[in-house]
Amino acid sequence: MTSDIYPVPASWADSATISAERYAADYVRSLDDADRFWLEQAERLEWFTPPSVADQSSFHEADFGVRWFADGVLNVSANCIDRHLATRGDQVAILWEPDAPDRPARRITFTELHAEVCRFANVLKAQGVRRGDRVTLYLPMIPEAAFAMLACTRIGAIHSIVFGGFSPEALAGRITDCDSRLVITADEGCRGGKCVSLKANVDAAARLITCLDTVIVVRATGGPVAMQDGRDIWYHDAAALVGGDCPPEPMNAEDPLFLLYTSGSTGAPKGVLHTTGGYLLWAAYTHACVFDCRDGDTYWCAADVGWVTGHSYIVYGPLANGVTTLMYEGVPNWPTPARMWQVVDRHQVTQLYTAPTALRALMREGDGFVMQTSRASLRLLGSVGEPINPEAWRWYHDVVGDGRCPIVDTWWQTETGGHMITPLPGATPLKPGAASFPFFGVEPALVDAAGVVLEGATEGNLVIARSWPGQMRTVWGDHARFFQTYFSAYPGVYFTGDGARRDTDGYWWITGRVDDVINVSGHRMGTAEVESALVLHRSVVEAAVVGFAHDIKGQGIYAYVTLNAGEVPTAALRKDLVAWVRAEIGPIATPDAIQFTPGLPKTRSGKIMRRILRKIAEGDFAALGDTSTLADPAVVDDLIANRVG
Ligand code: PRX
To answer: Where's the AMP-binding enzyme C-terminal domain (predicted)?
Structure first.
């Protein structure tokens, strides 16, 4: 940990929307006079019927529920598009940069976005999609992904985006969980010069399930596609048959907006549900304060719309604020490690928001690739998805930003809808690696294992003591699991699953997950999911998966595998298991190390002692702690002797 402080640059202190004084005053007001504060903020949105109530949430079991602005009526697409038409119709809304640098960029104005979204919405309606229906999106990073999202919101359908890197098995699970009968996909998705047939993956998923009856296919690359009669429809054919006018559906603030599946410590990924009013306000307000975009800015969030970062900060936040949002199809390091900085120059990007794992990978390539570009347009840098190590932070600040741009290290989660603990560029002196201070209305606290609230400079489990508008509302189809997962460990507060430290200046530092969730290249994964995939393999009897520190990915995946009696551990089997996990979940779950072991360290009651497995994966044999409670302590020696390093 570092104690360096980077003061607010004069250029920001003088002009930022939120100054240090304003932050201090408004933060107190956001807690002490919360309802009034939030009803005022709600005026940022355009409502058919403005809300008269703000927070009606309770974290207690007896009257548990999360509800905001419950009598308000609005439409998300109207907020992201229609209300900008009079003032910004000709401004670029979505600036699309393709994977291959020699292909042209696409510039979609707010007026064009309106036309595209209305037409897409009419295509959905023509296919029988109604308010409340679930529509699964399995799309590459093309503008049609944003059109499809906004089209769903226009007619009140609930979208569920599945990241294009997930396998057919993973896709099938997410389609059936929410009983989605329509999937929107593309012929192919291209990243880093390689094309994947997304449509073929949907076909494979469809063979595993029964609920799917329509597949809308967007032609993105013109690659080969097999169309199934009666089920598959080309988007361009369907679009030619519908009109271009589609009034936005008035939605209640608490009507479901979207589902996004995310990993937890146990069980299958859960469908995190966000609703209309609170989510949109949170995405818009955090985006406005944290990135502080001005007219003429080009803002770039280099995430994928398959993750929550893409939902809140490529599409909903910036568009609600009328900001030009850059959408990039490709990867950070192709065809050259200078690609990101070239994109910054080509489009004169003013705010850049990316993940530490990308920064670490690019940093390793040396400063030369950065220095060959200008980056003079940049005013602000952002980081998201995992703790940023001070070395990567300084490189981002000193080399990428030429020491000129503040870094907003934003801590949040799929469940929180948007930023929770983050610097504000005109208000917060920065400490490399610290998420800094809570956003308005966010009341973080630290508790020990027994739930006792810890005061002062200390470390503990991070909880949030009251609701905020962007909070998830439920786990799709399993409200009991929502309560159980987040509110049962420490009654009366929301448990984040993260650990954190508060220093003597009151800065918050996120230390990482304290549960069985790992963060691989900024992608969140439940160790239980990888274990479930492994034990489905016919040779495997048992598996335990842990994370270990990885220079580029942040965390890598280390799997301990016990084989069925008679199975021989070979290099070929190891390869086969890696391929198996990739097929079951997707390439993001590729194990970095697989150690075959005759047994796992278990207590006498049969509980696997993961603490020991984590230490061994890290190569930290000195600190294994008490192993005397193990049913068979000798297992540990075998594990150490055969560690895969
Ligand atoms: O552990 C925290 C880490 O990512 C988790 C949330 O992952 P996900 O729901 O996929 O959302 C990612 C995008 C917000 C958190 O529980 N995390 C996210 N941002 C940070 C972070 N850890 C440290 N610093 C951050 N800025």
So the answer is: 529-607
- List residues forming the annotated binding site for ATP: 385-387, 409-414, 498, 513, 524
Residue 624 pLDDT grade (very low, low, confident, very high; cuts 50, 70, 90): confident
Q: Are 531 and 522 in contact (CB under 8 A)?
A: no
Residue 254 has what pLDDT? 99
Which pTM value belongs to this model? 0.96
Token digits for 605? 């009651």
> Residues near ligand 1 with C-beta < 6 Å?
262, 308-309, 383-387, 409-414, 435, 496-498, 510, 512-513, 519, 524
Tell me: the pLDDT tens digits for 539-554? 999 999 999 999 999 9
Q: What is the ipTM of this complex?
A: 0.99
User: Which residues, including other chains, have CB under 8 Å from residue 585's CB and lie 6 or more apart?
Assistant: 166, 167, 169, 170, 529, 530, 533
Question: Which atom of ligand 1 sits closest to the CA of residue 435?
Answer: 26
Tokens matching residue 629: 């409670």
Instruction: Calculate how far, in angstroms, residue 606's C-alpha sits from the geometric centre of ligand 1.
Output: 32
Nearest CA to ligand 1 atom 15: 413
Tokens coding 596: 């075959």
Return the pLDDT at 415. Answer: 98
| Ligand 1 pocket test target in 313, 316, 393, 412 with most atoms within 8 Å of CB | 412
Q: Are 446 and 459 in contact (CB under 8 A)?
A: yes
* β-bridge mates for residue 464, sequence order: 444, 494
User: Nearest C-alpha to atom 12 of ligand 1 is from which residue?
Assistant: 385
**Residue 265: which pLDDT band, with cuts at 50, 70 and 90?**
confident
pLDDT band per the 50, 70, 90 thresholds, residue 7: very high
Q: What are phi and psi of 136, to 5 degrees?
A: -95, 135
Rg (CA), the chain: 24
Say what the pLDDT of residue 626 is: 81
Measuring CA to CA, how many Å separate 463 from each of 273, 397, 447, 460, 515? 20, 30, 7, 9, 13
**Considering only CA atoms, which residue is closest to atom 22 of ligand 1?**
386
Q: What is the C-alpha separation between 41 and 493, in angstroms, rounded? A: 24
Q: Please, which residues have CB within 8 angstroms of residue 55's CB and are 6 or more apart in sequence?
A: 34, 35, 38, 67, 68, 466, 467, 469
Residue of 524, 527, 529 best suited for mutating to test ligand 1, as the one with most atoms within 8 Å of CB: 524
> CB within 8 A of 12, min separation 6: which ones?
292, 406, 425, 426
Mean pLDDT of the region 607-614: 92
